[in-house]
Amino acid sequence: MTQSSVSPIGKIAVGGENLIDFVETVMLDGIPQYSANPGGSPFNLAIAASRQGSEVEYLTPVSKDRLGNILAERLTDSGVRLAAPRLDAPTSLAVVSLEDGQPSYQFYRKGTAERQITWDGLQSALKDRPWVFHIGSLGLSGGDDADLWERFFLACHDQGVITSLDPNVRPSLIEDRAAYIERLERMFKHADIIKLSDEDIEWLYPDRPLMAAFDHLQDLSSDGLRVLTMGAQGVHARCGKTNIEVGARPVKTLVDTVGAGDTFMATMLSWLAEEGVSSRSELMALNSDHLTAMMERSSLAASLNCEKRGCNPPYLKELM
Description:
The protein is an alpha/beta fold. The chain has one domain (12-313): UDP-N-acetylmuramoyl-L-alanine:D-glutamate ligase, CATH 3.40.1190. It has helices at residues 41-51, 66-77, 119-127, 144-158, 177-188, 198-204, 210-220, 260-274, 280-284, 288-306, and strands at residues 12-14, 19-28, 31-39, 56-58, 62-63, 81-82, 86-87, 92-99, 102-108, 132-136, 162-166, 193-197, 225-229, 235-239, 242-246. The strands form 3 sheets. A 9-stranded mixed sheet has the order 6-4-1-10-11-12-13-14-15, sandwiched between helices. A 4-stranded mixed sheet has the order 3-2-8-9. Residues 1-5 have low confidence and may be disordered.
């Protein structure tokens, strides 16, 4: 196991799905062939942050089945601590098909281990006082687990833990669009860090031009760091009255974009830990030079991930 020498300021607690991605690799006689890869947006983020030297705890249960063993080993091999018990329930599955390197997803999550969170288990994690709690993606799409994740997110904010949110919207799993958006907007009001893609914000607010939608997000959320990634068009970041734009980092050889956004988000959090940004007031004090440095490293990490199949985030030494 490769570890970095960074001394983080505190634990990053990560909540949200873990699953096996069956990712399309090649076509054989007109039939797509798939390989099994550990995945899930928060799962990917936990690995990416740990590989960059952050102390990471993963709060979501992992199955005891064979696929769950793959997921657990991937986490622990990258230095992530499993903070929830392994369960007998099955592992969630996703089928990832590719067209021109862009993924599309189908999910199978009914009754699976990663959805079996409990309030007592989450409260135990909060007693350990993480520095930041991150959540997003499928865990917020609906169901009792989404309610618990939201409740825990608000509890973390109330107790001074920096809250981080990446909606990573998966429209195929959103059964109640209005309720889902209402959940996100409640959480936006208590989120210190929000990162979303242009596709996310266009789905959330389709009647507004891109930057007008980003302004709307700013208006309805609390003060904090707000980041909009726009693929090849780069990234826009705002914090307080500071606004910056950074161009996209070129990808030398594109394999696929699976996990690029998760790697970007993880790099943001790891950069903040490395720089000792330990409170909301310090977060709000970031200037344009700070934001630019953070976005440039995050873009580099995402581009390196795109040069590998599936989500395989870089280690810190690859970013220096």
